[in-house]
Amino acid sequence: MRANELQAIYIMWMRQMKRFVRSRSRVISMIIQPLFFLIFLGVGFRNVQMPGLEGSFIDFLAPGIVAMAILFSSMFAGVSVLWDKQFGFLQEVLVAPVSRFSIIIGRTLGGATTALIQGLIILIISFILGVRPSSIPGLLLAIVFMILIAFSAVGFGLVIASRMNDFEGFQLIMNIIMFPLLFLSSAFFPVKEDMVLRTLSFFNPLFYMVDGLRGSLIGTENSIFSPFMDLVVVIIICVAMLSLGSYSFSKSEV
Amino acid sequence: MNIVETFNLTKRFNDLTAVDHISFSVRKGEIFGFLGPNGAGKTTTIKMLTTLLNPTEGTAKICGYDIVRDRDMVRQSIGVVFQEPALDTMLTGRENLDFHARMYGLSREERTTRIEEVLKLVNLVEKKDTLVKYYSGGMKRRLEIARALMHFPKVLFLDEPTLGLDAQTRRTIWEYIKRMNKEEKTTIFLTTHYMDEADFLCDRVAIIDHGKIIALDTIPNLKNAIGNDVIILSCSQPTDLRKRLEREDWVKSIEQHNSSLTLGVEMGEEKIPIIVEISQKIGVKIKSISVRKPTLDDVFLHFTGRRIRDEKDANSSLEKRSSFRRRGV
C-alpha cells in the first residue's frame, strides 16, 4: 500500500474524531439514551422475577445496553455518509487520488472508534452501578465483541446509506428492523425459556452479539451458547457486513 | 499544446443524452469557458472529465492521461471546485486544507508551506482557524478555490464558480481566478451560464446547448461572426420589415422577438439611416432604434435562436436537472 493511502485513512479517521468531539449534543444524546435504559430499567426491575433469569437483572441488562449503544451509534456513523453526499463533501473525497478501499477503511475505523468510545462510557457507568465483570480475560473478550459489533453496524449503515437518499428511510429501518431485532436479541429480557423466541433468535444476528458480549462479560449462566461459539458467528457477520458495506459504497455514484 | 482533449465524449442517462459526442481541446495556460443554459450538459461534462462519472461513449485525455484507464493519474493532475459547496463545515478552513493535502499525499513540509500560500492567495489567513460553518458564501468559495490549488494541479475545473453569489463577491472571485491563472500558471476550465463571466474571464469559449457544442472560438471571433455591431429596433410591422431586410446583403443576421428586431451588421451607425429609409418605403413605422456592441448573449441568440435565459427553456432544463439528481448523478 502506498504511503498516501495510509495518510488518507488516517485523515478520514481524524476527521470523524474531530466531528465527534465537536458535535457535543449528538454525543450526549447518544450516551444519555442508553444510560436512561440502563438506570430506569435496571433500577425499576431490580427485584423482578423473569423466566430464565439467573442473578440480578442489572447484570443481565448491562451487556444488552452496551451492545445497543454501540449498534445505534455505529449504524448512525455508517449512514452519515448520506450527509456527505447531501452536503457535497463526498465529491471532494471521491475525486482524490485515493482508492475507494482506503476511503471505506478510514470511514469505518472512524465510525467504529466513536461508537466504541460511547460503548466504553456505558460500560464504565454500569461498573459504577455495581455490575462486575466475571474475569479479566472475560472483560478482554467482551471488548473484542464490542469492536466486532461496531464494525458490523458501520458496514450495515454503509449498505443503508448507499440505498437511500434521505434520512427518513434510515428512521424507518431503525423502527421496523432494528428495534424488533434488538428486542428479540435478549438485550432486555431472557429468551431461553420460550421455545418460539429462542428459535427465532437463532436467525437474529444481534442475538449472537448480545449473547456473546454477556457471556464473556458477566458469565455464562444467562447465555445460550458459549462465548466462543458466538464469537465465530459474530466474526462471520462482521466480515459479511463489511464486505457488503464496502461493495455498496464503491458502487454508489455521486 | 493541448492539456485537455475530448474525443466524441458522450453521456446518456436512460433515454436522455446529456452530453452528445463532443470533441474539443483546451490549450495549456488558457482560461477555457463552457457556456450554456442550465441543463445543457456542462456539469455532466465536468463530472466525466474529473472521473466522477464514466462516459457512455468516447473518452478524454487530461495531460495525456485517459479519464477511464488512468484515473489516479488524472485525479493527481486536476483540481476541482464543484457547483455545490463541498466543504466540511464542522472543520476549520485550515483543517479542510489539511484534509485535502493529506488525501493528495503531500509531505509535512509541503503541507504547512502550501496551506499558508494558498490561504494568502485568497485572503483567508485570518479566518483559517474559524469553523467553516461561520464562513460567508464568498469565503467558502474562496476556500474551495484555494483547496483545489493545494496539490499544484495542472488543470483547475470550476463548475459555475460564482453561482448564487452577489455582484461584488463575484467580482472578487473573478479577480482570484485570473490571479490563479497568471501566478500559478494553472490552466482553467470553467462552466458558466453567465455571459458577463465568460466575457470577463475566458480566452476561448465553447457554447454548448442540448449536449452539443454549437460554437467554439475566442470571444472577439465569436462576436465578429455576427457582425461588429448590433442594431435593435422596434416597429409597427416587424415581420414585413424583417422579410424586406433579409434581402439586404449587409445584414449578417436578423432575429425577431415580438415587435423588436435584432440585426448583426458592420458599422452600425451608418446603417441606421438606410434602415429608416427602407421602412418608410414599405410603410413600417419605427418606434425606436439603437446600436450597441455585441455581447455573448447575442452570439448565443445567433447560434441557437434563443436567449440564454428564455423563461420557458430555463424551466424545462431545470426539470431535466432535477431528474439527473434523482438518478444519483
Task: Tell me about this structure.
- The complex is a heterodimer of chains A (254) and B (329).
- Chain A is 77% helix and 0% strand.
- Chain A is an all-alpha fold and 254 residues long.
- Chain A has one domain (3-251).
- In chain A, helix 2 runs antiparallel to helix 3 and helix 3 crosses helix 10 (205-218).
- The mean pLDDT of chain A is 88.
- Chain B has 329 residues and is α/β, with parallel strands linked by helices.
- Chain B has two domains: 2-222, Rossmann fold (3-Layer(aba) Sandwich); 227-293, Reverse transcriptase/Diguanylate cyclase domain (Alpha-Beta Plaits, 2-Layer Sandwich).
- Chain B contains twelve helices and 15 strands.
- Chain B has helices spanning 42-49, 71-77, 93-103, 108-121, 137-149, 167-183, 195-201, 219-225, 238-245, 268-281, 296-304, 311-326, and strands at residues 2-13, 16-22, 25-27, 31-35, 57-62, 65-66, 78-81, 155-159, 187-192, 204-209, 212-218, 229-235, 253-257, 260-265, 286-292.
- In chain B, the strands form three sheets. A six-stranded mixed β-sheet of chain B has the order 7-8-9-4-10-11, sandwiched between helices. In chain B, strands 1, 2, 3, 5 and 6 form a five-stranded antiparallel β-sheet that branches.
- In chain B, strand 5 (57-62) and strand 6 (65-66) form a beta hairpin.
- In chain B, helix 3 (93-103) packs parallel to helix 5 (137-149) and helix 5 (137-149) runs parallel beside helix 6.
- The longest helix of chain B has 17 residues, at 167-183.
- Residues 311-329 of chain B have low confidence and may be disordered.
- The chains are: A mainly alpha (254), B alpha/beta (329).
- Chains A and B meet through helix 1 and helix 5 of A and helix 2 and helix 3 of B.
